[in-house]
């Protein structure tokens, strides 16, 4: 069953009343912010405040790592559901602690990054990447919004301390975004959460999607498809192809 706002509220009331979950994770209107923000409904009264509309773009799966030990029902769009499945596959959360409430939501099929890549030269691809990172202020909202960026100590925070901030130069920004893309290879579920979280209009989702297409095309692997999946980066078979990535040499 796919839920809309009325069914979500009704289900949340039922689950909380019956004590089947501790929390229903959804969103509620927030006049101060101007759009719905995450909301942890713990009572029937709370459940009646849950909303669901086109402004509910946040991937709520990002909060599941902090809710270990609590039975949580979570409102999820298709990409959010894939993120939850990936967290289950990576053993970050437990199946018996999470109930996915699949929301009715259109997901547009993205255009192929591999095709774009095959039609462009290195310079054009480089310029697209630079256009995006030049807008970046290294605020890390994209990392914070990503359910799969859950390392307790990020490699970038090890360098940036209150007395030693990250430099806002192209090299640092390139390092951040390319390393993040590699850390998420075979783990990114293309939910769009990182792009939607960016207040500066940086859109590097194509980079993530390009890596996902590469893994799909070459290793028949799609993150967030199965809770039993072994991450593509953690498995090796002698028949695996050794292949250059995104235009590299084979
Ligand atoms: S949210 Fe946007 S500005 Fe902030 S680090 Fe990510 S890409 Fe850069
Ligand atoms: S699309 Fe962005 S937020 Fe979503 S899983 Fe991939 S890297 Fe994380």
Summarize this structure as a short list of keywords or feature phrases:
alpha/beta, binds iron/sulfur cluster, 5 strands, five-stranded mixed sheet, 250 residues, 2 domains
What does this structure look like?
The chain has helices spanning 5-17, 44-47, 78-89, 113-119, 122-135, 141-145, 155-159, 170-183, 193-197, 205-219; strands at residues 23-28, 37-41, 50-51, 72-76, 98-102. The model has no long low-confidence stretch (mean pLDDT 92). Strands 1, 2, 3, 4 and 5 form a 5-stranded mixed beta sheet that branches. It has 2 domains: 5-102, no CATH class; 113-234, no CATH class. It starts with a helix and ends in a 31-residue tail after the last helix. It is α/β, with parallel strands linked by helices and 250 residues long. The structure holds iron/sulfur cluster (2 copies). One iron/sulfur cluster binds next to helix 6. One iron/sulfur cluster binds at residues 136-142, 197-198, 200, 202.
Could you give the topology of this structure?
Layout (H helix, E strand, L loop, with lengths): L4 H13 L5 E6 L8 E5 L2 H4 L2 E2 L20 E5 L1 H12 L8 E5 L10 H7 L2 H14 L5 H5 L9 H5 L10 H14 L9 H5 L7 H15 L31
Parallel strand pairs: 1-4, 4-5
Antiparallel strand pairs: 1-2, 1-3
């Amino acid at each position: 069953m796919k839920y809309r706002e009325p069914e979500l509220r009704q289900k949340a009331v039922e689950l909380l009343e019956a004590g089947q979950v501790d929390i229903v994770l959804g969103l509620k209107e927030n006049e101060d912010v101007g759009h719905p923000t995450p909301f942890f409904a713990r009572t029937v009264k709370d459940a009646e405040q849950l909303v669901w509309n086109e402004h509910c773009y946040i991937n709520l799966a990002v909060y599941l790592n902090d809710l270990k030990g609590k039975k949580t029902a979570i409102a999820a769009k298709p990409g959010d559901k894939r993120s939850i499945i990936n967290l289950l596959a990576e053993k970050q959360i437990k199946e018996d602690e999470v109930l996915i409430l699949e929301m009715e939501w259109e997901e547009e099929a993205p255009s192929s990054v591999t095709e774009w890549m095959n039609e462009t030269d290195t310079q054009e691809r480089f310029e697209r990447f630079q256009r995006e990172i030049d807008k970046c202020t290294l605020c890390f909202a994209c990392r914070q919004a990503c359910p799969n960026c859950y390392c307790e100590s990020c490699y970038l925070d090890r360098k940036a301390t209150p007395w030693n901030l990250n430099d806002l130069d192209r090299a640092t920004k390139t390092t951040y975004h390319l390393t993040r893309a590699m850390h998420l290879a075979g783990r990114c579920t293309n939910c769009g959460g990182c792009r939607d979280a960016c207040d500066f209009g940086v859109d590097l989702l194509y980079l993530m999607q390009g890596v996902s297409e590469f893994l799909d095309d070459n290793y028949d692997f799609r993150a967030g498809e199965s809770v039993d999946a072994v991450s593509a980066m953690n498995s090796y078979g002698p028949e695996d192809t050794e292949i250059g990535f995104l235009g590299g040499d084979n």
